[in-house]
Amino acid sequence: MHGEGPQPVPRPGLAALRMAAASLLGTAVDVVEPLSGGARRDTYRVIDETGARFVVRLDRQAASLEKEIAVTLLVGDHVPVAPVVGADLAGELVGVPLTVSVYAEGEALDTALAGAGDDEAAALGEVVGRALGAVGASTFDAPGLLGPTLRPQPFDRPLPDLLVAMGDRVLGEAAARTALGDAVADGYRALLREAAPALEAVADEAALVHSDFNGKNLVLIRDPADAPIVSAVLDWEFAFSGPPLADVGNMLRRQERMPAAFVDRFVAAFAEHGGSLPAGWRSIAAALDAFALLDFLDRGTRGEHGAGYTEACSLIEEAVTRGDLAPPAPA
Questions:
Q1: pTM for the complete prediction?
Q2: Which member of 56, 80, 230, 245 lies 3.0 to 4.6 Å from 131 by CB, making a disulfide possible if both were Cys?
Q3: In this predicted model, what pLDDT tens digit does every residue of 266-308 receive, in sequence order?
Q4: CA 86 to CA 155: how far, in whole Å?
């Protein structure tokens, strides 16, 4: 459900980015340094003359940035986000559309979870589950893809059929079959067909789904008592209208590597703060997450061999080996 594949982004020099940031912020900028880069997007950390930090995000598709601005405005009163403080969606300043947002101070959830004891892991699960419940509190008239206006563009078929069709298409590509091997590709296709009917239970849900809700996109700070607080949910470019269990599946994609106390409390807090856990929810969440894995695999067949592609290949092979889309329980 991540949409069209990426296109190469012309990368302006740091001097041009410094001038663009200064223009949008209305203050001198001392430092511009790369944070991450991709085929379509690049991000940079910016530090102005007062020491305040910001993020410059470049995207070849202005509509993607417009959508993120619209989503952050939609949820900003009940979900912590990094406010956008400037934008050049026409690409006049550096030749590529860009936004400037406040830098989210704190540590990533992945970092906070590393080595966490049971009590700390449970506290993290509580705040993350609560945050996901808040995300899903925003609803739409129908499920579908979201653009800059946040009016859902309906999927071209029901979710169960969409999963089967996407699996058949992506797993039928020669590059995907070469990467996975015929046995794994066919085995995963069979798992998707087996899992698809369960999606009927959530096919009509039309809540906001982040679609990349995981440890790298959740920033945490501490209150005076050292309890964790989610200070920002980052990167809304893949958001769509659909079942919030898709975000549960994303978060628990590698649950066997997470503390059991985090997983248990995350799921409970999600349910306590508005999330729905229908019968068979673990299998439903994994089937919904399969859309994202297929998308990573699909992008890989078109040359984007990043970390998401590598992880998707591993997860698909592991699912076929155990004969189940749902990941194993935490150790």
A1: 0.93
A2: 230
A3: 999 999 999 999 999 999 999 999 999 999 999 888 777 778 8
A4: 32
